[in-house]
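Students often ask why we bother encoding 3D structure as a string. The short answer is that it lets us treat folding as translation between two languages. Here is a chain of 66 residues written in the first language.
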Amino acid sequence: MSKNEAPVIAEPAEKKQTAYTKRQIVNSEKFSKHRDLLNALLKDDKSYTEGDVKKILDDYLKGKVK
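And here it is in the second language, the structure alphabet:
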């Protein structure tokens, strides 16, 4: 590689996000502020990634009042 060439940075492989059960999320310290809301919004038989939970919370909290 010469001085004028920028180093090639390898793109990281797709990150595998860990999925958690409703019980794990509701009992987590990270989402403790929204524990009751998540208990109502999440389904017992489904797994969620951290991104899923954030999106569900965000969508609900920004929803319109009927």
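Translate back mentally: The first helix runs from residue 22 to 26. Keep this in mind for the problem set.
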